UniProtKB/TrEMBL annotation:
Keywords: ATP-binding, Membrane, Nucleotide-binding, Transmembrane, Transmembrane helix. Residues 572-591 have a biased composition (Acidic residues). NCBIfam families: plasmid_TraB. The chain crosses the membrane at residues 59-80, 92-112. It comes from Streptomyces broussonetiae. ATP binds at residues 280-287. The gene is traB. Residues 538-605 are annotated as: Disordered. Residues 256-457 form the FtsK domain. It comes from the Bacteria. InterPro entries: FtsK/SpoIIIE/SftA, FtsK_dom, P-loop_NTPase. This is Plasmid transfer protein TraB.
């Protein structure tokens, strides 16, 4: 027999016979669903009358009936936990009222005192209340609560309780509590993908922020429209001439609010200084993210930027005039790393002497306050200020391969207290490239699109559990990112943002900004410049002055060395030290002796070799090549008929003499500038 649905049966009943028996059958059928409450009232009355015959004036029966009443009411409340709150409360009140009347009727009689009146008035009222509830349940009005319940049931959270939603422009936030003892916040995190599927939204549009004080409560955030689909072109810095302590604007969130990042700490805001990791796969937009951050840094009045870029400043060349120190990969980067290590203790000592526990904007000004003086008598010292320092390591994977995966560990652990912020940019911050200690010391991260397997290398696990998935973008959405950093509300961590885009139209604005920074930006204080020069020598020259080339070295040629045609110097710079009037030197023993594999030439004596080696070190120092090793002397060895093993031994001897210092990389030595060594 084929089953019929309720609407079909209802239609059959309406079309039934119109005689007395047909009408009676129809009314009886319609009344059947409403009879149980009335039958219940009648049953309670009969039980009260029968109970009074047996237990009237019985103390033991009174105790038993009272306990039964309490237990029955509690059981009703407990069993109703899976229903709606209103139904649970209605059931508990009905049971409590009925059991209380039954207890009184059994002990005193159903007609004693007001019991009969309570029964005649309260019984029908209770039955009618359930009839009304049943009528309303037949045609329920669509409500947000019911739709939410249906959605949660689909994703395995049927018993979760969802609170009043807060609706903002393009953002809906609703408190959520899963079933106590049965589910946790982890279950909600695992269901985010299914929720996004049920709402037909991208995975990144649904996030969940757990309550730190509860394992079953949190906030569900839904962003229905992706406001990041259209890129916004960079039009200039957000705060030209402001302080580096003020927020840096590098883009916007998916709800349109600005994407902000702070580098220095703020004791009043309880915010620590930070280092930043910029991570993302090829084509994810790391270059634009870096340009957003660098242009913001260069637009501030109290900060220095040191940049290492093995790509020869491919993306950053328009900004070079405003950068205090720009180093290519290889030896220049090695010198910069060693200089940063020397700068940190020098800056920390200066801050300590001037009673600063961390770098503040006041540090960049001349020290005219008696609260921050280094004089023992307590008077204002008038010392030059110390700007904030940002050390930027672009394409850091090359540096890490050359210098070791822990080259930044000491810097990252110590630099924040010295007013130095380290920024490391690379594609894949995996543990085989960067030491775990270094990664743990980089509290801030700009995570762009990546391989789904690399998400855990960039973002904390809690942020991924809350719905952040940069692996969903890959390189298909350049500039999309997640930002995790001190000063940002943690509920914002799983919210995607997008950096501003740099196009060919941005180049001229970048050049104008670099020119502004060259004239108005901070200059290195004596402490920072002195510490850097003591290690890097001529490799560190500071920001080029207007009219200089971007390397910081003047290119003018002395007039006496120019010929009349102005084509250039008459003498080759390599032969400039030769006196044309001097006689040629006499032949020396060995000048004509052939050396295996080489043309006949002079083999220097041990004393000459040492002198030539010292000259080579001086030449390296003059060129700013401050970190050397045996491979840097290969051409020199061929020229002077010396072996590489001789150079290795001589490097070690020079280290014992104080002319060289070992670095973290085996076989590499840092040249101690001649004046410093003296």
């Amino acid at each position: 027999m084929v089953e019929r649905n309720t609407d079909e049966l209802h239609e059959i009943q309406l079309q039934g016979a119109s005689n007395a028996s047909g009408i009676g059958a129809y009314l009886l059928h319609r009344a059947k669903p409403h009879l149980p409450p009335w039958l219940g009232v009648a049953g309670v009355g009969a039980a009260g009358w029968l109970g009074s015959l047996r237990w009237a004036d019985s103390t033991a029966a009174g105790v038993g009936l009272t306990l039964g009443s309490v237990v029955l009411t509690g059981a009703t409340w407990f069993m109703g936990r899976s229903t709606s709150q209103s139904r649970r409360l209605h059931s508990a009140i009905t049971v409590a009222a009925g059991s209380a009347w039954l207890t009184g009727a059994c002990l005193a009689g159903p007609a004693a005192g007001p019991l009969d009146d309570l029964y005649l008035m309260g019984g029908p009222a209770a039955a009618l209340s359930w009839n009304v509830r049943m009528v309303l349940r037949r045609n329920p009005e669509p409500t947000g609560d019911s739709s939410d319940k249906g959605l949660l049931a689909k994703v395995g959270l049927a018993r979760a309780q969802i609170g009043q939603a807060k609706v903002e422009p393009n953002r809906v936030t609703a408190p959520l509590a899963v079933e106590a003892g049965e589910q946790t916040n982890d279950d909600v995190a695992k269901a985010l993908g299914r929720i996004a599927s049920a709402l037909d939204l991208p995975t990144s549009a649904v996030r969940y922020t757990p309550d730190p004080g509860s394992s079953r409560r949190g906030e569900l955030v839904i962003v229905p429209e992706d406001m990041l689909a259209e890129f916004v072109e960079w039009e200039g810095p957000s705060n030209l001439g402001g302080s580096i302590a003020e927020p840096l604007v590098i883009g916007r969130y998916d709800d349109g609010s600005p994407l902000l990042l702070w580098l220095p700490g703020d004791p009043e805001a309880k915010r620590n200084s930070t280092h930043v990791l910029i991570a993302g796969g090829t084509g994810s937009g790391k270059g634009d993210a870096a340009l957003n951050l660098q242009t913001e840094i260069l637009s501030r009045r109290d900060v220095l930027l040191w940049l290492s870029d093995p790509k020869m400043f491919q993306d950053f060349r328009p900004l070079l005039p405003g950068i205090d120190w720009a180093a290519e990969g290889g030896a220049p980067t090695e010198a910069m790393v060693e200089a940063i290590k020397a700068v940190i203790p020098a800056r920390t000592a200066w801050l300590g002497k001037h009673s600063y526990r961390q770098w503040l904007p006041e540090c960049a000004e001349q020290q005219t306050s008696t609260a921050h003086t280094c004089r023992p008598d307590g008077r204002a010292c008038g010392c030059d200020g110390m700007p904030f320092l940002v050390a930027w390591m672009e394409e850091a994977a090359n540096t890490l391969r050359a210098l070791g995966d822990d080259v930044f560990t000491g810097i990252a652990q110590e630099a924040r207290s010295a007013g130095v912020s380290l920024i490391v940019s690379l594609q894949r911050p995996s543990y085989d490239q960067m030491s775990t200690s270094t990664r743990a010391s980089l509290p801030s991260v700009i995570a762009l699109g990546c391989d789904p397997r690399d998400e855990g290398f960039s973002l904390p696990e809690a942020v991924i559990d809350a719905g952040a998935h940069p692996g969903a973008w890959g390189n298909r959405r350049p500039g999309y990112c997640y930002l995790v950093s001190p000063g940002i509300d943690e509920t914002r961590y799983p919210s995607p943002g997008r950096t501003q885009a740099f196009t060919h139209r941005s180049v001229s604005r970048m050049e104008v900004l670099a020119a502004w920074a060259q004239r108005n930006g901070a200059t290195a204080d004596p402490i920072t410049a002195g510490a850097a020069s003591s290690v890097a020598g001529r490799a560190y020259t500071g920001r080029p002055a207007p009219g200089d080339d971007t390397s910081g070295h003047r290119t003018a040629v002395e007039e006496d060395d120019m010929d009349d045609t102005s084509y250039g110097p008459l003498v080759d710079p390599e032969d400039d030290h030769i006196d044309p009037e001097a006689d040629l030197p006499d032949d020396e023993p060995g000048d004509d002796a052939p050396i295996f594999g080489q043309e006949p030439g002079h083999k220097p004596t041990p004393e000459e070799a040492r002198r030539l080696f010292e000259q080579a070190l001086t030449q390296f120092e003059e060129q700013g090549h401050m970190v050397v090793g045996p491979k840097d002397f290969m051409d020199w060895c061929d020229q002077h008929s010396l072996s590489r093993s001789w150079v290795s031994k001589r490097l070690k001897e020079s280290a014992l003499e104080g002319r060289l210092q070992p670095t973290n990389t085996t076989g590499r030595w840092r040249i101690v500038p001649a004046l410093t060594a003296a």
